[in-house]
Known about the structure:
There is one protein chain. This protein has five helices and seven strands; from the N terminus they run βαββαβαββαβα. It is an alpha+beta fold. β2 (31-38) and β3 form a beta hairpin. Strands 1, 2, 3, 4, 5, 6 and 7 form a seven-stranded antiparallel sheet that branches.
Amino acid sequence: MKLRQLSVFVENRTGRVAEVTRILAEHSINIRVISLADSHDCGIIRLVVNDVDRAIEILRAHQFTVHDTEVIAVEIPDAPGGMAHVMDVLFQEKINVSYLYGFVERSGEKAILIFRFEKADDALRALQTHNLRVLNGNDLYRL
């Protein structure tokens, strides 16, 4: 199951992340996962939200550049080796990871990794073949 993630491009200056999150809040868009990557001049805010299409429309109306990207969420044990196991599976299956970020809901229980793959369908097949739990949007949103 693939998820839709927003990538919002912002200038690397004070207040831009606050502006994006405030605009979404004002329109009752709930952010479930957020990641920020930066370079010298710009940043990329990656978001998983409850209403992707509406969020895109709203952010574009506020002059933000927004891309809709497919990602895959994988649940792993929050324990040493949990991530290593997933990465070993991907290595064995020759699946390249473009980027990933993660979070823990409750320490010591489960962690969630959000992956962007060059070949998402191949990655999804490999993960499921190895009995790894891939989350859909509803699963992720209910956590």
